[in-house]
Amino acid sequence: SSTDADAANTLTLDNDTLANTGTVLVENAARLQLTDATTINNTGGGTVTNHGEIESVVGLNVISNSAAFTSDGLIEVVGSSGASSADADAANTLKLDNDTLTSTGVILVENAARLQLTNSTTVDGSSSGTFTVHGELESVLNGNTIKNFTAFTSDGMIEVVGSSGASSTDADAANTLTLDNDTLANTGTVL
Fold first, then answer.
1. Rg, C-alpha atoms of the chain
2. What pLDDT sits at residue 1?
3. What is the pLDDT of residue 91?
């Protein structure tokens, strides 16, 4: 199954930096596990296609500069036991940095984990994707967008981080999170 938590075939990138100018392909019933500060940098035209599972496990893992990032599988940010769901310094963070992700599958941020959007990242559910936040969804820098999710739920924290020195009434804030054509069922916190 594309959402198999124990895929028979797993590739773990552990504290690696991958300069991707080709294609990273995760097939159905397979898993790509990112751990210990791994970065996949797609500058130069690299693509990421996920039909199985991309799993961020430990540390700050980054997927950056991907204009062609698609997923009809599972993207999971795994939580760590014993940590708070509102932990601002989650032990596990997946950062999407200047990416355009089209997800018709599932995005899951577990309790005590964080998904960080930065540098004009767009996550598009194409009117069929599922986005669930039990931990923290954080928008950090520039205009980030989440759009077209019909199943968007949060019992965790959605935080739009302000920049120091900016006015609280600034209409042109340095950081904006845009929810576009989404229906958010929120029982958590929005900051």
1. 16
2. 39
3. 76
